[in-house]
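quick one, 52 residues, struct below
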Amino acid sequence: MKEATGELNMTIVVVVAVAAILAFVTFFVPKILDQINGKWGNAAEEEIWTEE
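---
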C-alpha cells in the first residue's frame, strides 16, 4: 500500500508541475514575444548599413 501511495504522490507532483508550466506559458510567453517583436521592429526601422 505504501508503494501505491508513493506513486500517487508522484503523479500529483507531476500534474501540479505540468499545470504550473502551462500557466507560465499561457500568461508570460505572449508578453515576452510581443516585447521581442517590438524590439525587432524597432531594429528593422533603424539604418544599419551606412554607405560612404
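The mean pLDDT is 84.
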